[in-house]
Amino acid sequence: MKRKIIKIDDQKCNGCGLCITACHEGAIGIVDGKARLIKDDYCDGLGNCLPVCPVDAISFEEREAVPFDEKAAVQHKQTNADSFDQITRLANWPIQIKNAPSNAACFDKADLLVSADCCAYAYNNFHKEFMKNKTVLIGCPKLDSVDYSEKITSIIKENNIVSVTVARMEVPCCAGIENAVKTALAASGKTLPCTAVIFSIDGKHNLPGG
């Protein structure tokens, strides 16, 4: 049968995975660093994935395709829930502090996570426990050799930020990212809940249960 279905432009796709989060049927997966339509019958053709793509790599096309099989799609997503869970926590792009725009829509009413680069590698449940439902910014104060406080101040001033979480490693150089957030909060003139999470290189953190 001929029906409307999504089409992913391999040249445009940057592999961010946001479309996977948006797709309720589990029709999209990451293959070789690019988003792919896994099976035609998993795609309902409604296009929930289109508006979240930051590079406009997804569009509709009308072509011959097997009918949408809701039962098979639901079963597929449940079977693969664990693997999808590992890649569905990032909800904004770009995430580098230096590159992030100060007034992006993702900052509106956001719980902000400002993280040192290494944290996600040191703690294997970082996506699930710390990135879930948060707008993420990352950086390395040692390697970037910049003061992040000015950019973070702008983000907090110009947006309705709800809370801030700082994630950093236990090494001394990583204190720079926590200090930048503290400086930014003070400079913004706003009083926001702020939590600092410190990770050790053996995969633990200072919060209860860590």
Summarize the structure in short.
By secondary structure, the chain is of the alpha/beta class. The chain contains 8 helices and 8 strands. It is 28% helix and 22% strand.
List strands and helices in order, with pairings.
Elements: E1 2-8, H1 18-22, E2 28-31, E3 34-37, E4 58-64, H2 70-79, H3 81-85, E5 111-116, H4 119-122, H5 126-131, E6 135-139, H6 141-144, H7 149-158, E7 163-169, H8 175-188, E8 194-199
Parallel strand pairs: 5-6, 5-7, 7-8
Antiparallel strand pairs: 1-4, 2-3
Helix content: 25-40%
The largest sheet has its strands arranged as 6-5-7-8
Overall number of strands: 8
N-C termini distance: 53 Å
Q: What is the number of helices?
A: 8
Beta content comes to: 15-25%
Overall average pLDDT? 89
**Rg:** 19 Å
Low-confidence blocks of residues: none
Order of helices and strands: EHEEEHHEHHEHHEHE
Q: Structural class of the helices, strands and pairings?
A: alpha/beta
Report the principal-axis shape: elongated
Describe the biggest sheet? 4 strands, parallel
